[in-house]
Amino acid sequence: MATPTRYLDRTTPPHLSTLILIAGLSALSMNIFLPSLPNMAAYFRVDYAVMQLSVSLYLGASAVLQVIVGPLSDRFGRRRLLLWSMALFVLASIGTLIAPNVEVFLLCRTAQAVIATGMVLSRAIARDMVDEAQAASMLGYLTMGMSIVPMVGPFVGGVLDEAIGWQANFAMLLVAGLLVMVLTWVDLGETSVSRHASFRAQFRDYPALLASPRFWGYVLAASLTSGVFFAYLGGAPFVGTEIYGLSPTWLGVYFAFTAVGYALGNFFSGRFSVRVGVNPMILYGTFVTSGGLAALAVLLALGLAPASVFFGFFFFVGVGNGMVLPNATAGMLSVRPHLAGTASGLGGAIMIGGGAALAGLAGALLAPGSSPWPLLLIMLSCSFLSVAAILYVIRRARIIGA
Question: 16-401 sits in which CATH class?
Answer without folding.
Answer: mainly alpha
